[in-house]
Amino acid sequence: MLKVKPLEAKDYELIKEAEKVIEKNYRYGRHHIGSAVRTTSGNVFSAVHVEANVGRITVCGEAMAIGKSISEGEHEFETIVAVAHPHPHEEIETCWVVASCGLCRELISDYGKETDVIISYNSELVKCNVMELLPEKYTSDID
Fold it and tell me: Which of 13, 19, 23, 62 is catalytic?
């Protein structure tokens, strides 16, 4: 059973930041995921994913937001979220929270094992520690 925590007001603000960045920068076939990360100092960094014709070169929104944060000198993360923007052919009008992919879960945990991830779980928005989403994580750390 996944250990989850209820969202706080600041978590809904984080979701809004992810929505704002993708609503501003959405481009069909290029950018459809927005992400926002809140650092332990309370600063928020948001970014969009960067799609590529060669899939393995695509960079997820979470990686972009973490990279932006680190580039600005913020290296400790509290919470991260990703949202999807609807495509023109979809009958959806608003963004929605999406779960981080496995690669992003690895990256988030590499840079902060205490980081919470906002997800939809049992039809409810909640947050949980990234390690809950990545049991038995590979690590080169010696325990």
Answer: 62
Q: Do the beta carbons of residue 34 and residue 68 sit within 8 Å?
A: no
pTM: 0.94
pLDDT digits (tens, 9 = 90+) for 91-111: 888 999 999 999 999 999 999
106-129 confidence digits (pLDDT tens): 999 999 999 999 999 999 999 999
Residues forming beta bridges with residue 64, ordered by sequence position: none
Q: CATH number of the domain at 5-121, please? A: 3.40.140.10
Question: CB–CB of 65/37 below 8 Å?
Answer: yes
Query: Is 78 a known active-site residue?
Result: no
- What is the Cα–Cα distance from 104 to 98, expressed in whole angstroms? 12
